[in-house]
Specification:
This protein is 40% helix and 13% strand. The protein is α/β, with parallel strands linked by helices. The radius of gyration is 22 Å and the shape is globular.
């Protein structure tokens, strides 16, 4: 799964949080538990059950073998199981000392007081080399509760054969909205004239996906909420203008089908029925195995050059105590060291969490350097917003789908949704 979000995971997390309220707030464990004989044992939970699991296991093994003061005892489980168990376990004396979760989920747990502040981790001079947007995404109400474990951007994939067949330069991806629109129109093919293209210029999901539509809103100076997470922006003129532009391409020019989930969009591109898709590094292997000659580039820029960043971060149980918290920080430093990040990137396919690793160090995986190149041009969706699911799944995505399905004007539908989002944001203060 990597960092790709699944709605079932988010729903499970939200349900558990609602049921348990503020469990665990202000509690702390006995610092000698798990520190017998001066050696610290860290219980570490995460959901890396996918192709990146062997790389996680190898780095934990390397750390345990590199010193004799700390043993990381890792338990890996599916992400939906992880989130169902997480809050009650953090409140239990037998729960994990350290966990890894999507930063979009983190604010909910920080708000309930079950995570330890980790600001002091960033006092180390080497921490300045971590990807800034990923670090910023670990903060909630001015306090950092996490340290980046992995990070990636999403990029534009384009099918070079389809570009060539449409009379476009297969080695030149669109760099602006105008070029993007032109390429999407030219690679959309409705050969029998029934109004339903057999080939689309673009595959883009509007639900159950890593959010791609916010990128297009950001590029025009708009968005779903303000960068500080306090102001709803769907009614902002820049947001409405951007949505109108892309709605025209999708609805009028039919460059993309409506109603795709993330897996549907991936399948459309993978089956060579779409010429372009914006998605992360987790699809490179599948697209390559499908025999697609694809290129990778920054999503075409509007008024701003920006793409989506997404990250899983390490967090420490507030009950862990000083000895375990310090031990966790030492493991995090090992994980984010240059050598570890080169290994992680080459073997997982995700770019490093550091910005000071040269591209030639990642040459063993030719795609990694491309995703790493745009790290500082990335932005995290709904960063530091406590009620991520409510804003995204309950309000934004339904409003987006209503606009695309012609249920009303963008101004009216986004205006109503913006008011609802603002109510949610105000309730979290």
């Amino acid at each position: 799964m990597g960092t790709r979000r699944r709605t079932v995971v988010a729903a499970a997390a939200a349900a558990i949080l609602a049921l348990t309220g503020c469990a665990g707030r202000g509690s702390s464990s006995d610092d000698d538990k798990g520190t017998a004989g001066g050696k610290v044992t860290l219980k570490f939970w995460n959901g890396f059950t996918g192709p990146d699991r062997p790389a996680v296991e190898e780095l934990v093994k390397r750390y345990n073998g590199s010193q004799d003061k700390v043993t990381v005892q890792m338990e890996i489980m599916p992400w939906d199981v992880f989130y169902k168990k997480l809050l009650p376990s953090l409140s239990s004396a037998d729960g994990p000392d350290m966990v890894a979760m999507d930063t979009a989920q983190m604010a909910q747990y920080a708000d309930r007081g079950v995570l330890a502040p980790l600001d002091s981790y960033y006092d180390d001079a080497d921490a300045k080399n971590l990807v800034t947007p990923a670090v910023d995404a670990t903060a909630y109400k001015g306090v950092k509760y996490g340290v980046p474990m992995n990070f990636t951007t999403v990029l534009l994939y384009w099918n070079k054969e389809m570009f060539k067949a449409a009379g476009l330069d297969p080695e030149k991806p669109p760099a602006t909205w105008a070029e993007f629109a032109d390429a999407a129109r030219k690679t959309t093919k409705d050969t029998n004239g029934d109004g339903k293209p057999e080939q689309y210029g673009l595959a883009i999901a509007d639900h159950e996906t890593v959010p791609m539509w916010p990128i297009l809103l950001w590029q025009n100076g708009g968005g779903v909420v303000s960068p500080d997470g306090t102001k709803a922006m769907l009614n902002d003129p820049a947001t409405v203008e951007a949505m109108e532009f892309w709605r025209g391409l999708v609805v009028t020019d039919k460059v993309a089908p409506i109603g795709l989930g993330g897996a549907d969009a991936d399948k459309l591109f993978q089956s060579k029925k779409a010429a372009m898709e914006i998605v992360g590094p987790w699809m490179t292997t599948g697209f390559k195995e499908a025999g697609i000659d694809f290129g990778l580039a920054m999503p075409p820029a509007g008024k701003e050059k920006v793409t989506l960043g997404t990250s899983v971060a390490f967090n420490v149980n507030k009950r862990a105590g000083e000895a375990k918290t310090n031990a966790a920080k030492e493991f995090m430093k090992f994980w984010n060291s240059k050598d570890s990040q080169v290994y992680w990137s080459v073997n997982s396919g995700f770019p490093p969490s550091r910005t000071d690793i040269p591209a030639d160090a990642l040459a063993a995986n030719p795609y990694v350097a491309e995703f790493a190149k745009y790290a500082q041009d990335s932005r995290f969706f709904l960063a530091n917003v406590r009620d991520f699911q409510k804003v995204n799944e309950d309000i934004f995505e339904p409003a987006l789908q209503q606009v695309l399905n012609g249920k009303g004007s963008t101004q009216d539908l986004f205006g109503k949704a913006s008011t609802e989002i603002q109510t949610v944001l105000d309730g979290a203060r």
